[in-house]
Amino acid sequence: MVRGSRPAPPVRLSRRTRPGPAAPAAEHPVTWLRVAAAYSWRLILVGILVYGVFTVLGRFQLVAVAVFLALVVTSLLRPVTDLLNHVLPRPLSVAVALVGSLLLLFTLLALVGNAVAGQATQLAGEFRGGIHRIEVWLQRPPFRLRPATLTGLQNQITSYLSSHRANLLSQALSGLGRLVELITAVALALFSSVFFIHSGERLWRWTRDQLLPREARPTWDRAGHAAWRTFAGYTRGIIIVAATNAVLVGICLLVLRVPLALPLTLLEFFAAFVPLVGSPIALGVATVVALAGRGPLTAAAVLVLIVVIGQIEGHLLHPLVMSWAVSLHPLVVAISVIAGSIVAGVIGAVVAVPFVSVVWAVRCALRPAPP
């Protein structure tokens, strides 16, 4: 060191640049594994939540069905009521919309009952002849069933009905009990829809103010509006799809002169409310009626009708009508329908898709906007 010069300050390594022992590879999990684990526990929580909701609704199935029907009626009749409210008072507008829709429904049911009653004798003869044609058809290639085999099948069916007569009677009585529950649910739904149509916004604001703190109300207002917009859009969209399917089926059945064309058309309309599976089941019933009443050629034409209408519904109607209401992948729709049917039967299959759509819309509404 030269005399008179200052010693140089010591050089220190910072903590960031100071070398240290390398972390073992086990402390750094694979990125895709960490992401999969994060999504897995979230999916498990969502599954537990959905199962819990359906379990609670199953305990109060009558009330849940009534409220669901009331919301469906509200989504359909609310625009009509708002239109009538320009010239009529609000209570009178609600009454006109509800009574008019009930009269239209009862008129349609009366037409169906009249058609069935008028064709009862003719249908009985056609079905007997149709069953004979089916037997002859089964005796020919490629089935080649012997008459003794067919007679044995008929005897087995007759003996089964005779031995299980008491069980079938008890099931019929149970069905009458379910019918009473259904009538009760419909009455409760109509009673609730009167208030939903007349003052739904006031009911929502009262519920929001009673249950939510002031700072959370704007967020849940946004979520509630998104949920209602999605539910109403889905309901109107599925009715448009169901009505279009029913018109196409009715025209084809009338052209093919299939018995019970009007009741089968109405069955197709209501079956379309179960996405993906309802319409094929209804058209399968139409195929059986066509086979018994008109023969194999007409039944084959109805089978072709099933394929054509399924393609129109899946590739034209659903993408055009439902895209503005819900944005769910067909795989999500299929899984939702199957899961809903497992949990709550037919009601679960009907409710599953709108429920998932509403949950997704609320999730999108509550998601913070990207920076």
Essential attributes:
mainly alpha, 2 domains, single chain, 371 residues, globular
Describe the structure.
Helix 4 crosses helix 9 (about 280-295). It is built from eleven helices and no strands. The radius of gyration is 31 Å and the shape is globular. It has about 375 residues and is mainly α. The chain has helices at about 30-60, 60-85, 90-120, 120-140, 145-165, 165-210, 215-255, 260-270, 280-295, 295-320, 330-365. The protein folds into two domains: about 55-200, no CATH class; about 215-370.
What is the fold's blueprint, element by element?
Layout lengths: L30 H29 L1 H24 L5 H29 L1 H20 L7 H17 L1 H47 L5 H40 L4 H11 L6 H16 L2 H27 L7 H37 L5
Describe, in short, the structure shown:
The protein has helices spanning 31-59, 61-84, 90-118, 120-139, 147-163, 165-211, 217-256, 261-271, 278-293, 296-322, 330-366. By secondary structure, it is an all-alpha fold. It is globular, with a radius of gyration of 31 Å.
